[in-house]
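Progress note, sequence design subtask.
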């Protein structure tokens, strides 16, 4: 028996929070092949009457993504939304500065709205606060949400969309703290602009929710001062602050890579502390929640991307950010989702960046089919079974040290209770790269429950990947466990992603 162990007690009375399903959101930016040859490809053998790829829509539906951020990302900071609506032949082609591509605007706002409905999702719309400002944000909101009888609402109707899009969630710009951003602002400049934009937008539609820009990542020299300064302006008018973070394994150290959610914990604690400091300073009753609207593993294709943008700019839908994900990337994605669930009292929205072709769970071939990357599976399973109430993980677990992290838990785990379906699901990652871990969970409070499914993803090869027509990384059923008198026992294989479902 391994000396490594993890013991867990699950009690339905020990609640973290009701999980907001928008924690399983995603992101489509006008970048690379996300839109063109991704979700939209007229002439493709699976294309429907709107030019949307049906093979991609099926895979998106399988992920059950409730909200999708659009149209960027860095792209939004020089986006003229008016170019993306109306008759296609009148739309302007523009030089897209963020990714140095040519934007044809053949696919725009109304097409995206139609597409999100087909995949049972909603829009999280971002407004351009880089090269534009208050009036443009208000015009866009009026175009999207106002019934009729005003210039922009009637313009939408003249474009064939009688019903308003009713976009509920709006991002006030993107990564405005980043020097790479078109129209980069200081914290004070952004804070003032976001405050005034928020006030004006809520006059048009008081029912919307607004997300203010937090730091682009934890390494920013202005973090977390940016959060405190900007929230000082926006606190009363916005509902969420955004967080962005990407992770890589440039050192090729699997053990340390799988410890990166320790940094994520620190990031979340710091942002929450900044929010609560401003709450205290303003003597406010309002709790600021978090929208982690960009997160993923991203590092595989960076060198090629720089070369494409530098030496071969102004292409339409070039191959950019097409990371091919490994098995170990899938483990980290699982670990990140578990971390979000642990903080579901404050993290209410999150967007896996992105959805198709661009650092994405779904890949397409321009001439052929679509396929699932390794990261597709943990995301799909948590999205499907992580609905309900997140329960406090009462854990006793052995630890290890890595190159840059100390006291790393061997196992990260959380349970989600779905009262409606009378199901409880345990998500668990053994991130020990050398040893199996004996795992037991005490479900005494769940009387008459039985095991519905135990699924596991494990691989000897950390770099195993999925390709079109060749799926190496996927979950399989596991039968080696014991479950009696409310006690569940198994051994979690080293480097494994585990989903254990119980039902009444």
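Output:
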């Amino acid at each position: 028996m391994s000396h490594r162990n993890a013991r867990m007690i699950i009690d339905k009375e020990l609640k973290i929070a009701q999980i907001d399903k928008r924690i399983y959101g995603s992101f489509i930016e006008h970048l690379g092949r996300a839109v063109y040859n991704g979700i939209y490809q007229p002439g493709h053998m699976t294309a429907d009457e709107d030019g949307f790829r049906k093979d991609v829509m099926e895979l998106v539906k399988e992920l059950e993504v409730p909200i999708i951020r659009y149209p960027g990302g860095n792209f939004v900071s020089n986006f003229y939304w008016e170019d993306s609506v109306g008759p296609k032949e009148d739309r302007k082609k523009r030089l897209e500065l963020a990714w140095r591509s040519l934007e044809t605007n053949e696919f725009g706002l109304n097409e995206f709205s139609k597409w999100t409905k087909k995949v049972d999702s909603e829009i999280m719309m971002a407004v351009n606060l880089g090269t534009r400002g208050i009036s443009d944000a208000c015009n866009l909101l009026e175009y999207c949400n106002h019934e009729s009888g005003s210039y922009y609402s009637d313009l939408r109707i003249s474009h064939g969309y009688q019903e308003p899009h009713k976009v509920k969630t709006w991002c006030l710009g993107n990564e405005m703290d980043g020097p790479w951003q078109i129209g980069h602002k200081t914290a004070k400049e952004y804070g003032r602009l976001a405050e005034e934009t928020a006030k004006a937008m809520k006059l048009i539609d008081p029912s919307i929710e607004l997300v203010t820009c937090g730091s682009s990542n934890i390494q920013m020299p202005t973090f977390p001062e940016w959060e405190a300064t900007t929230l000082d302006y926006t606190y009363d008018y916005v509902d969420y602050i955004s967080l962005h973070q990407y992770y890589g394994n440039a050192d090729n150290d699997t053990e340390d890579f799988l410890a990166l959610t320790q940094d994520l914990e620190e990031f979340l604690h710091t942002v929450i502390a900044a929010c609560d400091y401003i709450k205290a300073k303003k003597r406010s009753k309002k709790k600021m929640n978090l929208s982690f609207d960009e997160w993923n593993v991203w590092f595989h294709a960076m060198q090629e991307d720089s070369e494409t943008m530098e030496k071969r700019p102004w292409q339409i839908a070039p191959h950019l950010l097409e990371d091919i994900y490994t098995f170990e990337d899938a483990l980290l994605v699982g670990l990140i989702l578990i971390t979000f669930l642990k903080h579901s009292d404050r993290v209410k929205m999150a967007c896996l960046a992105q959805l198709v072709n661009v650092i994405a769970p779904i890949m397409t071939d321009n001439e052929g089919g679509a396929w699932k990357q390794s990261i597709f599976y943990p995301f799909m399973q948590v999205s499907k079974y992580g609905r309900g109430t997140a329960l406090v993980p009462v854990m006793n677990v052995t630890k290890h040290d890595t190159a840059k992290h100390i006291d790393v838990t061997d196992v990260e785990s959380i349970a989600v209770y779905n009262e409606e379906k009378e199901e409880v699901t345990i998500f668990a990652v053994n991130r020990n790269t050398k040893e199996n871990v004996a795992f037991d969970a005490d479900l005494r409070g769940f009387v008459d429950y039985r095991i519905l499914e135990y699924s596991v993803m494990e691989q000897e090869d950390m770099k195993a990947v999925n390709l079109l027509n060749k799926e190496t990384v996927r979950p399989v059923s596991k039968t080696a466990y014991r479950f009696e008198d409310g006690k569940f026992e198994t051994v979690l294989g080293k480097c494994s992603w585990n989903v254990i479902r119980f039902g009444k």
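Residues 20-359+369-385 form a domain with the TIM Barrel fold (CATH 3.20.20.80). Work on this subtask will continue into the next period as scheduled.
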